[in-house]
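Lab manual, section 2.4: Encoding a predicted structure.

Procedure: take the sequence of the chain (463 residues), apply the prediction step described in section 2.3, and record the output as structure tokens. A sample record is shown.
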Amino acid sequence: MIEFYLKHNSKNIKPLVDNLLNELEYIFETEKISTEKTDKIFFPEIKGIVSNSSYEKINSYYQTIEKNKEKYPFLKNYVNKNRIELPKKNSFVDLFAGCGGLSLGLTNAGFQPAFVNEIEPTFAETFYFNHNLHADQYYVGDINKLVTDIDKHSKFFKNTTLVCGGPPCQGFSMANRQRLIDDPRNVLYKSYLRFLHEVRPQFFIMENVKGMAHKISEIIADFKKYLGDDYNFDYALLNAKDFGLPQNRERFFLIGNRNGVDTHKIFENIRKEYKSQFVLKDAISNLPELQPKSIKNNNDINNEEFGFMMRKVKLKKNKFHTFINDNKETPFLFNHKNRYNNERDIEIFNRLPQGANSLHSSISDIMPYASRNHMFKDKYFKLNENEVCKTITSHMKFDCNMYIHPTQARGLSPREAARVQTFPDNYFFRGSQNKWFTQIGNAVPVKLAEIIGKHIIKHLCSH
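Recorded output:
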């Protein structure tokens, strides 16, 4: 991890290293791994930046990882990934990559990541921790600068099979009469098009809000302007619940290819991938119970009552657990922590029945926005365990009052939200607790991305 910090987040390296050492200390203690003494120097660049004791620990801990990483493969996440070997086939580039949900699904489908762009260092750190890419295969920064300097990174884009990403369209509005490409707020959308023009992959995927479907003729015209007539395009609104996933999440997907494939038929085949329906209870019922937390300013506390950032625990398997983890054992459970709520909110969480919102009579006497109920009917919502979850969004970084656990007086934990998004349990979201929620809420459901990837990769094999 330190090599990633040095290259992509050096200004915050001291607190990042301190947190890293705490993590490794917990793992060594839990797994009963003896730390190694060594004279070997692993990261001379940070001597003098961190304390002497931290620097000694870094060298000792990294020596310990080197000695034990084959016996404990999870430790490999903490060291620099394999030397750069660009994929020989099925390579892809992920732009606006976030924490890597879309990439993980595509990787599961048989694609191989070659290059990643993400502007937020913490999100890129999560991607790095959970994927097998060298630190040099990341561009942590503004895509506009990446496109401007694209020749500096051209070695990563040779024979690129697929480019994917969801450019934020801040100027998007159904009422906005200005063209998307001409709106100065949509410069990221334009840069995505410019990147495609330069790289010209066999396939591309663009994911966005469902309202983009209303602009489809304009979007197709924009893509044709940058890519010419070589690409066949089609789009679809895909809802995670229609594929058996435990979430009502509808998003816009545009797929294009220059392999002569009818993209409309790809979407037809994707839609046939329905599996038996999972509901919220399937996704979260085997996770450890957490208690309401009414104590402020204790986000760094890890305990049985409020949860852990990292915890070794053996979970009782169910069908959903096996599904998201691909029947693999996961040594640790990550990001399953409760957040602070005041006493009033906890009382509301207790009183509300499943499926009820702010207008329910059970909380009328303590509802803080009673005079404006028509505006705040979804300020509180208790999820129904026998239905699919409502759309997981990044708003959860502010509060989880709209995502009240169906049987416990608290909001969903980040791990529970990640379960709904079909991330495997060993996917470790980095940074602060609020950033965990942001990363999870912005992601493409992993298993939906995997389905899309499987139907695209079939057409690569025949060309």
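Check your result against the sample. The domain at 91-273+447-461 is CATH 3.40.50.150 (Rossmann fold).
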